[in-house]
Write a structure and sequence with these properties.
The chain is an alpha/beta fold. The chain contains 14 helices and nine strands. The protein is globular.
Length: 310
């Protein structure tokens, strides 16, 4: 088993004046990858990617994810081709459905989400490879990148995972990603060719394992929502998880009251040695890139997370 890549997510709400500091420090500390998010009301994915790539020299930069319904495929291909030409070999583009509530709010949720995602990604792939769409839309020869950037699908449902296995270079799995969920996802992806699996997880590293557990809990408050069901179903405590969530008034209460062992399973949390061991477990389940989601003070978290890189 080859060493998994270790990345960190750029927090969506990090103060603008701290973003460059965070990015450059992540590269200095030795992280392999930095992933950015495009969440409604925060910051755009393409704009962030361009800035991060310009500020760094080595790290791969992943966009996870660009909602397919928010962009015309031809213009999405132009943006990605530009990044791939200016920063060859350093960009990974995640594309997905987007959060349904957000997409409906802006009038961009399609009537057939799966079909729309397949059509969008297929068109972007065609254009990045120098091909033309039926309408003869194409990229000029000067705009086609010499190496097509990998396209990954950021999805979670069984049909969407199967689609990723058919048309994408990899899959981005949102948090929490346990070994059980990773194995279930790999089975549903069922890719016939090499396929990269990127896993997001709340991450807290501390020499005091109990302190790490306490710090991680707020980052797990959202996982009881219905969209997270595929992540929980493969776990041996899925029934107990659902029962506790139903008794709690909100996600914050749920995160406070869940057993410590669940926190250990649902996050990359503990001492550096414990977290490295968990990353290796995930790699054994098929994960190629483990990406930390920092909790609390982002810059301080970055320093402590880097302990796993030693």
């Amino acid at each position: 088993m080859s060493r998994p890549a270790i990345g960190v997510m750029l927090p969506r709400d990090l103060d603008a004046h701290q973003v460059q500091t965070f990015v450059r420090r992540a590269e200095e500390l030795g992280f392999d990858e930095l992933w950015i998010v495009e969440d409604l009301g925060f910051r755009g994915g393409i704009a962030q990617a361009g800035a991060v790539l310009a500020w760094t020299e080595r790290m791969r930069v992943g966009i996870g994810i660009l909602p397919a319904g928010a962009r015309n495929a031809a213009f999405a291909a132009m943006e990605l081709a530009t990044l791939a030409q200016l920063f060859p070999g350093r960009i990974d583009a995640g594309i997905g459905h987007g959060m349904p509530d957000w997409m409906r709010a802006v009038g961009a949720w399609p009537s057939r989400p799966l079909g729309a995602l397949e059509a969008h990604v297929t068109a972007v792939r065609t254009l990045l490879a120098g091909g033309a769409l039926d309408s003869d839309v194409h990229l000029d020869s000067t705009a086609v990148p010499s190496e097509r950037p990998p396209l990954l699908l950021g999805v979670r449902g069984p049909k969407s995972l199967a689609l990723s296995g058919r048309i994408a270079d990899g899959t981005v799995l949102a948090e929490p990603v346990t070994p059980e969920y990773a194995r279930a996802a790999v089975a549903r992806i069922d890719a016939a060719s090499p396929h990269r699996l990127v896993a997001y997880n709340v991450g807290v590293v501390d020499a005091d394992a109990a302190a790490a557990l306490a710090t991680a809990r707020p980052g797990l408050a959202a996982i009881g929502e219905p969209d997270w069901a595929p992540h929980i179903e493969p776990l041996p405590f899925a029934a107990e998880f659902a029962a506790l969530r139903a008794r709690c008034a909100d996600g914050a209460e749920f995160a406070r009251t869940m057993p410590d062992e669940w926190v250990r399973q649902l996050a990359l949390v503990g001492t550096a040695a414990q977290v490295r061991a968990r990353i290796d477990e995930l790699a054994g389940a098929g994960v190629h890139s483990s990406v930390f989601i920092p909790v609390g003070d982002s810059l301080a978290a970055l320093e402590s997370l880097a302990a796993v890189l030693d």
